[in-house]
Amino acid sequence: MQQVKTVLLVDDDHDFRIQQRAMLEALKYNVVEAENAAAALGKLENPTPDIAIVDLMMEEHDTGFTLCHNLKKRLPNMPIIMVTGVAAETGVAFNVKTREEHRWIKADALLEKPVRAEQLQQEIKKLLKV
Amino acid sequence: MNQLQVLVIDDEPGMRMGVERTLDGQRLEFWGTDILDVAVETAGTGAEGVDKILNGKIDILFLDYKLPDMNGLEIIEKLGERAKELIIIMITAYASIEVAIEATRKGAYDFLPKPFTPNELRTVTRKAAERILLARKNLQLAQEKKQVRFEFIRVLGHELKAPLGAVEGYLDLMKTKTLGDNLDSYMQFIERSSLRLQQMRKLIVDLLDMTKIESGKRDRKLVPINLRAAAENAIELATPAANARKISISLESPAEIMLMADSGELDMILNNLISNAVKYNRDEGQVFVRLLQSAEQNIVIQVADTGIGMSAEEQQKLFKEFSRIKNAKTANILGSGLGLSILKRLAEMYNGNISVESEPDKGTTFTLEIPADQQQAETPV
Q1: What's the CA gap between A8 and A21, in Å, rounded?
Q2: By CB distance 3.0 to 4.6 Å, which of A29, A72, B177, B193 could disulfide with A24?
Q3: Which residues pair with B354 in a beta bridge?
Q4: Is residue A1, in this structure, part of any structural domain at all?
């Protein structure tokens, strides 16, 4: 019997959290929500999340980046999926595929909103190596 | 920005030198606030002059009518569209009426008959410079306005897209039956979707209100209105929403309190203030509406609530468009982010002032003070 994995879901958009939670719970994950970076850092124990999904733009335009750094400091082995509407809204495109970018964007995968369930499942599985 | 570039086209070296000596390096001051530094360039032939204008930043052109290679009118023609951006002053010893008319038609702004004194030259230059400065200021203002408009549309686009994205997300989850076959499982999705759509509708309605106010073309009719009666109407409108959350609304007012106002605008003001006080209240809270006439004959409308309140930092952003305060306390409250900027504009139209006092978790008081006599304020906006 495989243990249920916990996903930390950090997004300031109430509706996006409801939707992600529904998707993740349907995929049999345990979900812990946080609506901002500070709340996220307070939710790293009991249970310790196995993976985090972090929105890029929250209080500030780059809150997600800072949060990724801080999460990796506390839990170096926890993979992070960053989700963003940035490319769609501002035309700013970036990815985490090159080493150079990966050095300053401490996320392990990047998904653009709207995020579909299959995509999410695929990324989580890949990062948790299940 | 603060440079004024002058070009003299004249075949007489003495004339070129005279203008240069009088104007080059001069500093012109306008209205005690604006400064233009004059720099003079010269050209001895028409061809050289045209070249300098087309490849430079000339503002004022002193143009001799009689030149060896072409006459003044031909030069203006050669400049084409560029001539319209210049102030052209013809210098000529014998300007016939015909030449003057023709030159003016082609874009000359002024004439300076030869011979002229340095003082006459300075006066003509100053007059032209003032015109240029005003044109520059107008251009700058237009650009700033355009910038504000762009920013408004950008944010508006975002605000309209956000609820659509949310609703699409919920529909997608329903389409793929993420929560199974039972419709009841999807109630939260449906309720959230309808809330976001209501929000969108509210935004569009507010936007239309704002457009009405901004255009100023709407028929504004200032008539004597009993503010108390208008407030009673607004309270009645807000009562169903208040009752649903056991919020009481009380009114403290003289039986009659008259002011000159447009009834549509006054309704907008009262509805905005009172519905906000209900929306941002706690369950079982209170709303106090107070109307009074101050010693200075000003009308005071005060609406206080016992709601979630705001921090000092949040209060500062309050009257800006789309600066809706987003936190856990406001997540489920409908708002367009335009209501208070509408209120502020209306207050300005009535030569009034709106202020706010607030304390987090204690409540907020909005106070609008406007002159009772609006006769002087009746000029169209």
Answers
A1: 10
A2: A29
A3: B368
A4: no
Q: Which residues pair with B366 in a beta bridge?
A: B303, B356
Residue B230 in any domain: the answer is yes
Size of interface A-B (CB pairs under 8 A): 38
Torsion, CA B231, CA B236, CA B238, CA B242, rounded to 10 = 120
Alpha helices in chain B (DSSP H): 13-23, 46-54, 72-79, 97-106, 118-175, 187-215, 227-244, 263-279, 312-317, 339-349
Residues B134 and B226 grouped into a single domain: no
- Stated pTM of the model: 0.62
Structural domain of B342? 221-381
| Residue that the structure tokens 């929000």 belong to | B199
Higher pLDDT, B342 or A25: A25
Say which residues have a Cβ less than 8 Å from residue B54's Cβ, sequence separation at least 6: B79, B82
How many domains does one find in chain A? 1
Residues of A with CB under 8 A from a CB of B: 12-16, 18-19, 22-23, 26, 35, 85, 89, 113-114, 116-117
Residue type, B16: R
Question: Which residue range is the domain that position A75 belongs to?
Answer: 6-128
**What is the mean pLDDT of the segment spanning B62-91?**
88
- How many other CB atoms are there within 10 angstroms of residue A41's CB atom? 15
| Contact residues, chain A, for B326 at CB < 8 Å | 12
- Cβ contact (<8 Å) for A22 and B176? no
With CA atoms as reference, report the closest residue to B287 among B223, B351, B231, B343. B231
Q: What's the half-sphere exposure (Cβ side, CA atoms, 13 Å) at A115?
A: 29
Taking only the tens place, the pLDDT of each residue in B141-197 is 888 888 878 878 887 888 888 899 999 999 999 999 999 999 999 999 999 999 899
Supply angle C-alpha A11, B309, B237, rounded to 5.
100
Chain B residue with Cα closest to A89: B158
CATH number at residue A24: 3.40.50.2300
Nearest-Cα distance to chain A for B201, in Å, is 18
Instruction: Count structural domains, chain B.
Output: 2
Q: How far is CA B270 from CA B109, B217, B285, in A?
A: 54, 22, 19
Whether A26 maps to a domain, the answer reads yes
